[in-house]
Design a protein that fits this description.
With about 400 residues, the protein is of the alpha/beta class. It is built from twelve helices and 17 strands. The protein folds into two domains: about 5-45 and about 310-410, Aspartate Aminotransferase, domain 1 (Alpha-Beta Complex); about 50-305, Type I PLP-dependent aspartate aminotransferase-like (Major domain) (Aspartate Aminotransferase, domain 2, 3-Layer(aba) Sandwich). Bound molecules: pyridoxal-5'-phosphate (PLP).
Length: about 400
Protein backbone atom coordinates (compact mmCIF):
# COMPACT_ATOMS: atom_id res chain seq x y z
CA UNK A 1 0.00 0.00 0.00
CA UNK A 2 1.37 3.33 -1.02
CA UNK A 3 1.33 5.65 1.98
CA UNK A 4 1.69 9.39 2.15
CA UNK A 5 4.03 11.68 4.03
CA UNK A 6 1.54 12.57 6.76
CA UNK A 7 3.43 15.72 7.61
CA UNK A 8 1.69 17.21 4.57
CA UNK A 9 -1.60 16.84 6.44
CA UNK A 10 -0.33 19.23 9.10
CA UNK A 11 0.13 22.03 6.57
CA UNK A 12 -2.31 24.83 7.05
CA UNK A 13 -3.93 25.37 3.68
CA UNK A 14 -2.64 28.61 2.24
CA UNK A 15 -5.69 30.51 1.11
CA UNK A 16 -4.04 33.92 1.11
CA UNK A 17 -3.66 34.59 -2.60
CA UNK A 18 -6.74 32.57 -3.60
CA UNK A 19 -8.82 34.43 -0.98
CA UNK A 20 -7.54 37.71 -2.37
CA UNK A 21 -8.38 36.61 -5.92
CA UNK A 22 -11.89 35.58 -4.82
CA UNK A 23 -12.60 38.89 -3.14
CA UNK A 24 -11.27 40.81 -6.13
CA UNK A 25 -13.37 38.73 -8.54
CA UNK A 26 -16.51 39.22 -6.43
CA UNK A 27 -15.94 42.96 -6.29
CA UNK A 28 -15.27 43.14 -10.03
CA UNK A 29 -18.53 41.31 -10.69
CA UNK A 30 -20.60 43.83 -8.76
CA UNK A 31 -18.56 46.81 -10.03
CA UNK A 32 -17.64 45.96 -13.62
CA UNK A 33 -16.92 49.63 -14.38
CA UNK A 34 -14.22 49.94 -11.69
CA UNK A 35 -10.61 49.64 -12.79
CA UNK A 36 -8.59 47.73 -10.21
CA UNK A 37 -4.93 48.42 -9.49
CA UNK A 38 -2.92 45.54 -8.07
CA UNK A 39 -0.30 46.41 -5.49
CA UNK A 40 -0.58 42.98 -3.93
CA UNK A 41 1.72 40.46 -5.50
CA UNK A 42 5.46 40.21 -5.04
CA UNK A 43 6.25 39.97 -8.73
CA UNK A 44 8.13 42.47 -10.86
CA UNK A 45 6.44 44.16 -13.80
CA UNK A 46 9.22 45.68 -15.93
CA UNK A 47 10.99 44.03 -18.89
CA UNK A 48 14.45 42.48 -18.53
CA UNK A 49 17.41 44.88 -18.92
CA UNK A 50 18.46 45.08 -22.58
CA UNK A 51 21.99 43.89 -21.66
CA UNK A 52 20.39 40.62 -20.48
CA UNK A 53 18.23 40.32 -23.58
CA UNK A 54 21.28 40.81 -25.84
CA UNK A 55 23.24 38.17 -23.91
CA UNK A 56 20.26 35.79 -24.12
CA UNK A 57 20.00 36.26 -27.89
CA UNK A 58 23.71 35.65 -28.37
CA UNK A 59 23.57 32.52 -26.21
CA UNK A 60 20.55 31.17 -28.08
CA UNK A 61 22.48 31.61 -31.34
CA UNK A 62 25.37 29.62 -29.84
CA UNK A 63 22.93 26.81 -29.07
CA UNK A 64 21.90 26.78 -32.74
CA UNK A 65 25.34 25.74 -33.99
CA UNK A 66 27.09 22.37 -33.36
CA UNK A 67 30.41 24.17 -32.84
CA UNK A 68 29.18 26.44 -30.04
CA UNK A 69 26.37 24.31 -28.64
CA UNK A 70 26.26 23.69 -24.86
CA UNK A 71 24.92 20.51 -23.28
CA UNK A 72 24.97 19.86 -19.54
CA UNK A 73 26.96 22.49 -17.72
CA UNK A 74 28.57 22.18 -14.27
CA UNK A 75 25.82 21.53 -11.70
CA UNK A 76 27.06 24.39 -9.51
CA UNK A 77 26.90 26.88 -12.37
CA UNK A 78 29.34 28.10 -15.04
CA UNK A 79 32.49 29.68 -13.68
CA UNK A 80 31.94 32.78 -15.86
CA UNK A 81 28.92 33.54 -13.64
CA UNK A 82 30.23 32.29 -10.29
CA UNK A 83 33.40 34.35 -10.64
CA UNK A 84 31.48 37.53 -11.45
CA UNK A 85 29.20 36.99 -8.45
CA UNK A 86 32.11 36.37 -6.08
CA UNK A 87 34.00 39.43 -7.27
CA UNK A 88 31.24 42.03 -7.67
CA UNK A 89 28.77 41.00 -4.97
CA UNK A 90 31.30 40.03 -2.32
CA UNK A 91 35.04 40.61 -2.76
CA UNK A 92 34.62 44.19 -4.07
CA UNK A 93 32.59 44.93 -0.93
CA UNK A 94 35.14 43.45 1.41
CA UNK A 95 33.29 40.17 2.00
CA UNK A 96 35.42 37.05 1.80
CA UNK A 97 33.53 34.71 -0.57
CA UNK A 98 35.17 32.56 -3.25
CA UNK A 99 33.64 31.50 -6.57
CA UNK A 100 33.58 27.83 -5.56
CA UNK A 101 31.42 28.69 -2.55
CA UNK A 102 28.63 29.85 -4.88
CA UNK A 103 25.91 27.49 -6.10
CA UNK A 104 23.91 28.83 -9.03
CA UNK A 105 20.29 27.67 -9.06
CA UNK A 106 16.90 28.31 -10.63
CA UNK A 107 15.55 30.19 -7.63
CA UNK A 108 15.94 31.29 -4.05
CA UNK A 109 12.53 29.80 -3.35
CA UNK A 110 13.83 26.30 -4.15
CA UNK A 111 17.11 26.88 -2.33
CA UNK A 112 15.55 28.26 0.87
CA UNK A 113 13.05 25.40 0.68
CA UNK A 114 15.54 22.61 -0.09
CA UNK A 115 18.43 23.54 2.19
CA UNK A 116 16.73 22.10 5.29
CA UNK A 117 17.05 18.53 4.01
CA UNK A 118 20.77 18.38 4.76
CA UNK A 119 20.04 18.93 8.47
CA UNK A 120 18.66 16.58 11.08
CA UNK A 121 14.90 16.39 11.56
CA UNK A 122 15.20 16.80 15.32
CA UNK A 123 16.83 20.22 15.42
CA UNK A 124 15.24 23.36 16.88
CA UNK A 125 14.21 25.87 14.22
CA UNK A 126 13.67 29.60 14.68
CA UNK A 127 11.41 31.26 12.13
CA UNK A 128 10.26 34.89 11.95
CA UNK A 129 6.60 35.89 12.20
CA UNK A 130 5.47 37.48 9.89
CA UNK A 131 7.32 35.38 7.32
CA UNK A 132 7.82 34.32 3.70
CA UNK A 133 5.87 31.01 4.05
CA UNK A 134 8.47 28.80 2.29
CA UNK A 135 10.74 28.57 5.36
CA UNK A 136 7.95 27.36 7.58
CA UNK A 137 6.08 25.03 5.22
CA UNK A 138 9.19 23.14 4.09
CA UNK A 139 10.02 22.37 7.72
CA UNK A 140 6.46 21.20 8.32
CA UNK A 141 6.78 18.87 5.30
CA UNK A 142 10.05 17.50 6.70
CA UNK A 143 8.40 16.69 10.02
CA UNK A 144 10.18 19.27 12.17
CA UNK A 145 6.95 20.57 13.69
CA UNK A 146 3.97 19.31 15.60
CA UNK A 147 0.39 20.18 14.79
CA UNK A 148 -1.00 23.58 13.90
CA UNK A 149 -3.17 25.31 16.46
CA UNK A 150 -3.95 28.90 17.33
CA UNK A 151 -1.98 30.22 14.36
CA UNK A 152 1.19 28.37 15.38
CA UNK A 153 2.95 25.07 14.76
CA UNK A 154 4.12 23.23 17.86
CA UNK A 155 7.87 22.88 18.13
CA UNK A 156 8.85 26.03 16.22
CA UNK A 157 10.51 28.97 17.95
CA UNK A 158 8.75 31.99 16.48
CA UNK A 159 10.79 35.17 16.17
CA UNK A 160 8.15 37.82 16.65
CA UNK A 161 8.18 41.05 14.73
CA UNK A 162 6.12 43.92 16.10
CA UNK A 163 5.97 47.70 16.36
CA UNK A 164 8.24 47.72 19.41
CA UNK A 165 11.15 45.98 17.66
CA UNK A 166 10.41 47.52 14.26
CA UNK A 167 9.94 44.00 12.83
CA UNK A 168 13.57 43.11 13.47
CA UNK A 169 13.10 40.17 15.86
CA UNK A 170 14.93 39.92 19.16
CA UNK A 171 17.29 37.02 19.83
CA UNK A 172 15.59 33.84 21.05
CA UNK A 173 15.59 33.30 24.80
CA UNK A 174 16.39 29.61 24.32
CA UNK A 175 19.07 27.84 22.27
CA UNK A 176 18.10 27.05 18.66
CA UNK A 177 19.98 25.25 15.88
CA UNK A 178 18.75 26.76 12.62
CA UNK A 179 17.69 30.39 12.21
CA UNK A 180 15.90 31.92 9.22
CA UNK A 181 16.40 35.64 8.64
CA UNK A 182 15.38 37.78 5.66
CA UNK A 183 16.58 41.37 5.13
CA UNK A 184 15.43 43.60 3.48
CA UNK A 185 12.36 41.72 4.59
CA UNK A 186 9.41 40.34 2.69
CA UNK A 187 6.67 41.14 3.74
CA UNK A 188 7.63 44.01 6.09
CA UNK A 189 10.35 45.86 4.16
CA UNK A 190 12.35 46.07 7.42
CA UNK A 191 16.14 46.22 7.21
CA UNK A 192 18.71 45.21 9.80
CA UNK A 193 21.72 47.28 10.82
CA UNK A 194 25.19 45.85 11.28
CA UNK A 195 25.27 45.87 15.12
CA UNK A 196 22.03 43.90 15.28
CA UNK A 197 23.09 41.46 12.58
CA UNK A 198 26.32 41.01 14.53
CA UNK A 199 24.27 39.97 17.59
CA UNK A 200 22.69 37.20 15.51
CA UNK A 201 26.06 36.03 14.25
CA UNK A 202 27.38 35.96 17.82
CA UNK A 203 24.31 34.08 19.00
CA UNK A 204 24.79 31.48 16.25
CA UNK A 205 28.48 31.10 17.11
CA UNK A 206 27.71 30.70 20.81
CA UNK A 207 25.12 27.97 20.15
CA UNK A 208 26.84 26.22 17.22
CA UNK A 209 23.77 27.20 15.22
CA UNK A 210 23.45 28.14 11.56
CA UNK A 211 21.80 31.24 10.07
CA UNK A 212 19.98 31.02 6.74
CA UNK A 213 20.11 34.58 5.45
CA UNK A 214 17.71 35.43 2.63
CA UNK A 215 19.01 38.55 0.87
CA UNK A 216 16.72 38.38 -2.17
CA UNK A 217 16.06 42.14 -1.88
CA UNK A 218 19.67 43.21 -1.34
CA UNK A 219 19.74 45.29 -4.53
CA UNK A 220 17.13 47.67 -3.11
CA UNK A 221 19.52 48.83 -0.38
CA UNK A 222 20.66 52.42 -0.93
CA UNK A 223 21.75 53.30 2.60
CA UNK A 224 25.46 52.46 2.88
CA UNK A 225 25.15 51.76 6.60
CA UNK A 226 22.89 48.75 5.95
CA UNK A 227 24.80 45.50 5.34
CA UNK A 228 24.09 43.98 1.91
CA UNK A 229 25.47 40.62 2.88
CA UNK A 230 25.71 38.79 6.19
CA UNK A 231 29.39 38.20 5.32
CA UNK A 232 30.05 41.88 5.96
CA UNK A 233 29.76 40.86 9.61
CA UNK A 234 32.90 39.40 11.14
CA UNK A 235 32.57 35.72 12.02
CA UNK A 236 29.60 35.07 9.73
CA UNK A 237 31.56 32.78 7.41
CA UNK A 238 31.45 30.02 10.03
CA UNK A 239 27.73 30.26 10.79
CA UNK A 240 25.78 31.58 7.81
CA UNK A 241 24.46 30.56 4.41
CA UNK A 242 23.24 33.38 2.16
CA UNK A 243 20.55 33.22 -0.53
CA UNK A 244 20.29 35.69 -3.38
CA UNK A 245 18.26 35.88 -6.53
CA UNK A 246 18.19 37.78 -9.81
CA UNK A 247 14.36 37.77 -9.59
CA UNK A 248 13.87 41.14 -7.91
CA UNK A 249 17.38 42.42 -8.70
CA UNK A 250 16.97 42.30 -12.46
CA UNK A 251 13.45 41.13 -13.26
CA UNK A 252 14.26 37.40 -13.52
CA UNK A 253 11.07 36.08 -11.83
CA UNK A 254 10.01 34.43 -15.09
CA UNK A 255 13.55 33.77 -16.38
CA UNK A 256 14.82 31.98 -13.23
CA UNK A 257 18.31 32.40 -11.86
CA UNK A 258 19.54 32.68 -8.29
CA UNK A 259 22.45 31.57 -6.14
CA UNK A 260 23.31 30.35 -2.68
CA UNK A 261 26.58 31.00 -0.86
CA UNK A 262 27.82 28.17 1.35
CA UNK A 263 31.22 29.10 2.82
CA UNK A 264 33.66 26.24 3.21
CA UNK A 265 34.19 27.26 6.83
CA UNK A 266 30.55 26.53 7.82
CA UNK A 267 30.36 23.48 10.08
CA UNK A 268 27.49 21.30 11.20
CA UNK A 269 27.64 18.37 13.61
CA UNK A 270 26.69 14.72 13.99
CA UNK A 271 24.88 13.39 17.03
CA UNK A 272 28.22 12.67 18.66
CA UNK A 273 29.53 16.16 17.90
CA UNK A 274 31.79 15.35 14.94
CA UNK A 275 32.23 18.31 12.59
CA UNK A 276 31.17 18.25 8.95
CA UNK A 277 31.53 20.83 6.21
CA UNK A 278 28.09 22.12 5.24
CA UNK A 279 29.57 22.98 1.83
CA UNK A 280 30.31 19.32 1.11
CA UNK A 281 26.81 18.25 2.11
CA UNK A 282 25.11 20.89 0.00
CA UNK A 283 27.44 20.16 -2.92
CA UNK A 284 26.42 16.50 -2.72
CA UNK A 285 22.73 17.33 -2.53
CA UNK A 286 22.92 19.94 -5.31
CA UNK A 287 24.89 17.76 -7.76
CA UNK A 288 22.68 14.72 -7.07
CA UNK A 289 19.34 16.44 -7.53
CA UNK A 290 20.00 19.41 -9.81
CA UNK A 291 21.47 20.01 -13.25
CA UNK A 292 21.87 23.75 -12.98
CA UNK A 293 20.35 26.58 -14.96
CA UNK A 294 20.24 26.76 -18.75
CA UNK A 295 23.29 28.22 -20.50
CA UNK A 296 21.42 31.18 -22.06
CA UNK A 297 19.92 32.16 -18.70
CA UNK A 298 23.32 32.04 -16.96
CA UNK A 299 24.69 34.25 -19.76
CA UNK A 300 21.81 36.67 -19.22
CA UNK A 301 22.53 36.73 -15.47
CA UNK A 302 26.24 37.31 -16.07
CA UNK A 303 25.36 40.33 -18.25
CA UNK A 304 24.04 42.10 -15.13
CA UNK A 305 27.65 42.40 -13.95
CA UNK A 306 28.79 44.27 -17.07
CA UNK A 307 28.86 48.05 -17.08
CA UNK A 308 25.61 48.41 -19.06
CA UNK A 309 23.88 45.61 -17.18
CA UNK A 310 24.69 47.09 -13.81
CA UNK A 311 23.43 50.50 -14.84
CA UNK A 312 20.21 49.07 -16.28
CA UNK A 313 19.52 46.82 -13.29
CA UNK A 314 20.05 49.75 -10.93
CA UNK A 315 17.75 51.89 -13.04
CA UNK A 316 15.10 49.21 -12.59
CA UNK A 317 15.36 49.02 -8.80
CA UNK A 318 15.51 52.85 -8.68
CA UNK A 319 12.21 52.89 -10.55
CA UNK A 320 10.50 50.60 -8.02
CA UNK A 321 12.10 52.49 -5.13
CA UNK A 322 10.67 55.75 -6.41
CA UNK A 323 7.23 54.07 -6.47
CA UNK A 324 7.88 52.91 -2.91
CA UNK A 325 8.74 56.48 -1.89
CA UNK A 326 5.41 57.72 -3.31
CA UNK A 327 3.48 55.04 -1.41
CA UNK A 328 5.34 55.77 1.81
CA UNK A 329 4.85 59.52 1.51
CA UNK A 330 1.10 59.26 0.88
CA UNK A 331 0.48 56.68 3.61
CA UNK A 332 2.42 58.79 6.11
CA UNK A 333 0.58 61.94 5.05
CA UNK A 334 -2.69 60.14 5.82
CA UNK A 335 -1.50 59.66 9.39
CA UNK A 336 -0.75 55.94 9.19
CA UNK A 337 2.45 54.42 10.54
CA UNK A 338 4.48 52.30 8.16
CA UNK A 339 7.88 50.71 7.79
CA UNK A 340 9.77 49.64 4.68
CA UNK A 341 9.62 51.42 1.35
CA UNK A 342 13.18 52.68 1.85
CA UNK A 343 15.78 50.13 0.79
CA UNK A 344 12.85 47.82 0.01
CA UNK A 345 10.00 47.54 -2.52
CA UNK A 346 7.47 46.73 0.23
CA UNK A 347 5.62 49.10 2.53
CA UNK A 348 4.17 47.57 5.67
CA UNK A 349 1.28 49.65 6.94
CA UNK A 350 -0.26 49.60 10.40
CA UNK A 351 -3.94 49.61 9.42
CA UNK A 352 -5.05 50.02 13.06
CA UNK A 353 -7.76 47.47 12.32
CA UNK A 354 -8.22 43.86 11.20
CA UNK A 355 -5.96 43.12 8.16
CA UNK A 356 -8.82 41.83 6.01
CA UNK A 357 -11.09 44.74 6.98
CA UNK A 358 -8.44 47.16 5.79
CA UNK A 359 -7.93 45.07 2.65
CA UNK A 360 -11.70 45.26 1.91
CA UNK A 361 -11.76 48.99 2.56
CA UNK A 362 -8.96 49.62 0.04
CA UNK A 363 -10.56 47.30 -2.51
CA UNK A 364 -14.08 48.64 -2.21
CA UNK A 365 -13.39 52.34 -1.69
CA UNK A 366 -10.19 52.74 -3.75
CA UNK A 367 -10.17 49.78 -6.14
CA UNK A 368 -6.66 48.91 -4.95
CA UNK A 369 -5.47 45.41 -4.08
CA UNK A 370 -2.91 44.99 -1.29
CA UNK A 371 -1.93 41.93 0.78
CA UNK A 372 -3.37 41.43 4.27
CA UNK A 373 -0.55 41.08 6.77
CA UNK A 374 -2.37 38.31 8.66
CA UNK A 375 -1.61 36.04 5.70
CA UNK A 376 2.09 36.10 6.65
CA UNK A 377 1.59 34.97 10.25
CA UNK A 378 -0.05 35.86 13.53
CA UNK A 379 2.15 38.93 14.04
CA UNK A 380 1.04 40.32 10.67
CA UNK A 381 -2.49 40.84 11.94
CA UNK A 382 -3.48 44.50 11.81
CA UNK A 383 -1.04 45.27 8.99
CA UNK A 384 -1.15 45.27 5.21
CA UNK A 385 1.66 45.00 2.66
CA UNK A 386 1.69 47.36 -0.29
CA UNK A 387 4.06 46.48 -3.11
CA UNK A 388 5.90 48.97 -5.32
CA UNK A 389 5.97 46.52 -8.25
CA UNK A 390 3.77 48.31 -10.75
CA UNK A 391 4.05 51.22 -13.16
CA UNK A 392 4.71 54.67 -11.72
CA UNK A 393 1.46 55.82 -13.29
CA UNK A 394 -0.58 53.10 -11.59
CA UNK A 395 1.09 53.72 -8.26
CA UNK A 396 0.33 57.47 -8.45
CA UNK A 397 -3.26 56.74 -9.36
CA UNK A 398 -3.65 54.08 -6.65
CA UNK A 399 -2.28 56.38 -3.96
CA UNK A 400 -4.54 59.21 -5.02
CA UNK A 401 -7.55 56.93 -4.74
CA UNK A 402 -6.39 55.55 -1.37
CA UNK A 403 -5.96 59.12 -0.08
CA UNK A 404 -9.49 60.03 -1.07
CA UNK A 405 -10.93 56.80 0.32
CA UNK A 406 -9.16 56.99 3.67
CA UNK A 407 -9.92 60.70 4.17
CA UNK A 408 -13.57 59.87 3.57
CA UNK A 409 -13.48 56.87 5.89
CA UNK A 410 -12.05 58.77 8.87
C1 LIG B 1 10.97 36.79 -4.30
C2 LIG B 1 11.65 36.18 -3.14
C3 LIG B 1 12.68 35.27 -3.33
C4 LIG B 1 13.18 34.92 -4.72
O1 LIG B 1 12.61 33.78 -5.18
P1 LIG B 1 13.05 33.18 -6.59
O2 LIG B 1 12.67 31.75 -6.45
O3 LIG B 1 14.51 33.38 -6.75
O4 LIG B 1 12.26 33.90 -7.64
C5 LIG B 1 13.32 34.74 -2.23
N1 LIG B 1 12.97 35.10 -0.99
C6 LIG B 1 11.98 35.98 -0.76
C7 LIG B 1 11.67 36.37 0.64
C8 LIG B 1 11.29 36.53 -1.83
O5 LIG B 1 10.30 37.40 -1.60
Amino acid sequence: MIRINENYLKLKASYLFSDIAKRVAAFQQTHPEREIIKLGIGDVTRALPSACIEALHRAVDEMADDDTFHGYGPEQGYSFLREKIARHDYQDRGADVAADEIFVSDGAKCDTGNIQEIFSTDIKIAIPDPVYPVYLDTNVMAGRTGDYSGGRYDGIVYLEGNRANGFVPDLPTEPVDLIYLCFPNNPTGATIDKPRLKQWVEFARAHKALILYDAAYESFIRDDAIPRSIYEVEGAREVAIEFRSFSKTAGFTGTRCAFTVVPKSCQAYTNTGAEHEVHALWNRRHTTKFNSVSYPVQRAAAAIYGEEGRRQAKEMTDYYLSNAAVIRREITALGYDCIGGENSPYIWVDGRTDSWKFFDLLLEKAGVVCTPGAGFGKCGEGFIRISAFNSAQNVEKAMQRISEALREAT
